[in-house]
Each structure stands twice: as C-alpha cells, then as structure tokens.
C-alpha cells in the first residue's frame, strides 16, 4: 500500500445486503474512519433498471450470489441449486452493471464482461503472455454445442485429460474433470448431480461418472449456456493432497494468498477442500515464490479498471512453475486472512487492504463515470 495520507471516503456498495461480504467490508471501512458504506441492493438495481451515484461516492460491486430472488431474476429459476441458466445470468448481470450511473467505480464494466466469460478471459491472459493451460476454446474460437464437440476438440488438441467448464460459471458450478484412456474408458469428476428428470443440480458431494451416455447427457444439457475446455494440468501436492493457490491482488499488488488442498480435482473449499499451510508452500517453492506472485500480478494487470481480483494459480508438480487457471472478480472472500509479508497489507484483511489502497490512491485512478444518457447527448450533438 502507498505511504500517502489516508483520507475518509464516501463508500457505496452494490450487493445483497444480508451477505457476510457486506458486513466484512463495512467493518473495514468503519475502522478506516470512512463511516458505514451505503448499501445498494442488487434486487433494487435489477428491478428499477439501474441506480445513480454521487460524483464523490466510491462504488464497489460485490457478488450478486446467495440471494434467491436475485438469482431468480438473473437465471430465471426458483431453484438455487440448478446449474442451468448461466448464460442468462451473464446477460442479466452485465445489463445490471451497465445500468449503474455515476460514482467512482472500482469494477470496470468491460473488465467484468471478460472476467465472467472464461473463454474471453483465457484469451486476454494468453495475449498478455500470462501462462495459462492450453485451450481449444480460448477466445470462443469454436462454439461447443454437444459432448461430441467436446470429444472432437479434446482429440484435436491432444487432450487426454481436460476440464470442461461453463463459460459463465463460478464456484465450480458445472465443472467436469474429464479423463480418457487409450482403451476407451472415460471418467468425469464433478459436483453436478443429474436427477431422474434430466435436471442438473449443484451438490456439495463430488461425484464420478463412468457411463459416457450419462456424461454426454450432462454436457449436452450444459452446452447451450456456453462451454470452455482447457488442459487438466497435473498439480503440485502438499502432503497427500493436491494443491493450488488463490492469490488476491489489490491495486496491482499481490496482498493475500491461501492454499487450497483436496483429494479430488476440485479444490473449492465448499466442496471439501481445505486450507493448507502457506509457510510450507513458500518453503517448497523457494525462490520460485516470487514468480508465483509476479504471475498473479501480471494476470491482474490484464484488468486495469478493476481494483481487486482473485487469481487461481495452478502449481506444477514440485512447485517448479505456475499457471493461471482463472481470474475472479469477487475472489476476495477470505475471512480472517491477513496480508503477505512485504505486501504493504500486513495485518489487514482483503477488505481493509482495498479500503487502504483507495484511500492512498490518486482520485484519477478511478474517474467518475458519466451516465449513459450524458454520453448519448454528447454524441448526438456532434
């Protein structure tokens, strides 16, 4: 963080007010002397067609998840466990983001459109020279319309093992870790539960499917929402568990990191993953730890209009090198985790680090966003 004097700021947060993310950020803002942030509900934004912010408000967007009514408006279903509907969610979410007017915004609409499309995100990272897994769908080169397409693309790319992901998914929703063998056997590891009526539901239990007909039925159901395929890279281990990293980057600097370990290919903490020993990882990585942080910062730099992102970093076996799996717009929910040594965020959680970064930044870093109507008026007059 900068050594500039930190000044009180007027904060507004677009969020689901009951979510613990709001409480954590409000605590950080209050401790920094900024008072309690004004909360603008995602439900109101979506119902009212937008919201207006004052020029002196610093506007932070937070996840619209974990609210049944907001989810219904975005995805068109009353069942929050349903996997389908992510393409509709993506369109509705971006429409909501674009309907916000004024304020100093810390989440760029163009950045968000890319961050929530894994195909576009992969292509942007690749173009910037950030190491990413090989992918036949990077930049939406070819649409994936069925399991047959997945099989063809995997074969053409020489992928025996691959992750098949919803292009607009999050929290491992709809992700399948697919393994094939030379004898024709196939296995998919996923949190997707397929019910008797063919519906797909997110589950907290990892499942393994070995019947290709059933795997095909799952993928064919997901395909209309858009799919992304990438090589399944062997990961480093910590003890007897595979491991990866979530690195939070604030204002261009890697400030926080957490190790996620699992006995399955999916390390998400809500799917049975567990936090690992970061000190042990740093010791195993040795002088390559600096490389891990540098790659995370390079990935975040691909999204210059966004204050904070969470980078999912995939370590190779032996912790020899690192690859970026995903970049998350709302990847900062790491309660009680304080900043890395030398990061400038020592003693601060991820939310306090963001408040401190904005307090010490130049106001020009995040200019006031004019209302769309004002832009149209200017264009019409020329």
Question: What report would you give on this structure?
Answer:
The protein contains twelve helices and 15 strands. It is an alpha+beta fold and 382 residues long. Strands 10, 11, 12, 13, 14 and 15 form a six-stranded antiparallel beta sheet that branches. The protein starts with 9 loop residues before the first strand and ends with a helix.
Overall morphology: globular
Instruction: Count the beta strands.
Output: 15
Largest sheet: 6 strands, antiparallel
Tell me the Rg in angstroms: 21 Å
Strand content: 25-35%
Q: Extract low-pLDDT stretches.
A: 373-382
**SSE order:** EHEHEHHEHHHEEEEHEEEEEHHEEHH
Query: How does the helix and strand content classify structurally?
Result: alpha+beta
Q: On the 0-100 scale, what is the average pLDDT?
A: 92
Number of helices: 12
Terminal-residue CA separation: 42 Å
Helix fraction by DSSP (H/I, runs of at least 4) = 25-40%
């Amino acid at each position: 963080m900068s050594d500039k004097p930190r000044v009180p700021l007027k904060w507004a947060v677009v969020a689901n007010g009951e979510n613990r993310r709001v409480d954590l950020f409000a605590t950080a803002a209050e401790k920094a002397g900024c008072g309690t942030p004004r909360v603008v509900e995602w439900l109101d934004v979506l119902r009212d067609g937008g919201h207006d912010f004052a020029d002196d408000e610093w506007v932070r967007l937070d996840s619209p998840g974990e609210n049944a009514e907001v989810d219904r408006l975005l995805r068109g279903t009353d069942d929050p466990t349903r996997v389908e509907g992510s393409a509709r969610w993506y369109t509705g979410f971006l429409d909501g983001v674009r309907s916000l007017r004024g304020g100093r915004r810390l989440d760029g609409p163009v950045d968000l459109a890319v961050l929530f499309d894994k195909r576009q995100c992969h292509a942007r990272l690749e173009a910037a020279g950030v190491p990413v897994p090989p992918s036949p769908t990077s930049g939406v080169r070819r649409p994936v319309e069925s399991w047959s397409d997945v099989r063809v693309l995997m074969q053409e790319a020489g992928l025996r093992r691959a992750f098949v992901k919803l292009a607009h998914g999050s929290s491992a929703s709809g992700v399948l870790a697919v393994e094939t063998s030379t004898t024709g056997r196939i296995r998919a590891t996923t949190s997707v539960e397929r019910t008797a009526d063919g519906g797909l539901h997110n589950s907290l239990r990892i499942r393994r499917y070995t019947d290709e007909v059933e795997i095909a039925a799952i993928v064919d159901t997901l395909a209309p929402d858009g799919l992304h395929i990438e090589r399944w890279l062997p990961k480093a281990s910590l003890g007897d568990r595979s491991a990866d990293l979530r690195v939070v980057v604030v204002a261009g600097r890697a400030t926080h990191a957490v190790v996620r370990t699992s006995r399955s290919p999916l390390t998400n903490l809500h799917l049975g993953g567990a936090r690992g020993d970061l000190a042990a990882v740093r010791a195993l990585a040795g002088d390559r730890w600096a490389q891990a942080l540098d790659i995370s910062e390079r990935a975040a730099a691909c999204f210059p209009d966004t204050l904070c992102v969470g980078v999912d970093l995939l370590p190779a076996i032996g912790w020899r090198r690192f690859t970026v799996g995903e970049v998350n717009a709302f990847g900062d929910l790491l309660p009680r985790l304080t900043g890395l040594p030398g990061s400038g965020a020592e003693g601060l959680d991820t939310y306090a680090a963001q408040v401190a970064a904005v307090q010490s930044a130049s106001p020009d870093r995040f200019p006031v966003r004019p209302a769309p109507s004002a832009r149209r008026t200017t264009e019409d007059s020329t």
